[in-house]
Amino acid sequence: MSVLVLVVDDEPDIADLFRQQFRHDLRQARFALGFATSGPQALGLIAAAQGRDIILLLSDINMPGMSGFDLLARARALRPDLPIIMITAYDDAATRSRAVAEGAEGLVAKPIDFTLLRIEIERRLAVREARR
Fold it and tell me: 88 is in which domain, residue-wise?
């Protein structure tokens, strides 16, 4: 599988939640899900993903150590064209504005609306397919 959606969140159950929501897509190998529980771990996965197409990075904002905003800047330095959407439990205008100003393509509030997230992933898959 060469298409990856990378999810970064320090909550231990987030991987199970995403796998459950996208189980049909994963079984059909439409894309793979990768998970990191911290910014440094995510940067390692991004650096190691040479040759894999990361179509979307979803990152929580509030994490211990490296915040999602710090990760956003460092991920952009590694892969300037990487689409990044921030995830937060605190969806307010200031957080949304900061996310976009710092280079995120959007902000998703918790609890995550997986219907909207599925639409976003489908859009990314279509863009990738159109490039081929």
Answer: 3-131
CA pair distance 129, 68, nearest whole angstrom = 29
Torsion 118-19-5-129 (CA) sign: negative
C-alpha 93 chain-centroid distance: 21
Domain count, the chain: 1
CATH number at residue 121: 3.40.50.2300
Confidence band, pLDDT 50/70/90 cuts, at residue 6: very high
d(CA 82, CA 76): 7
pTM of structure: 0.94
Residue 96 tokens read as 């949304």
**DSSP letter for each residue of 25-42:** HHHTTS-EEEEESSHHHH
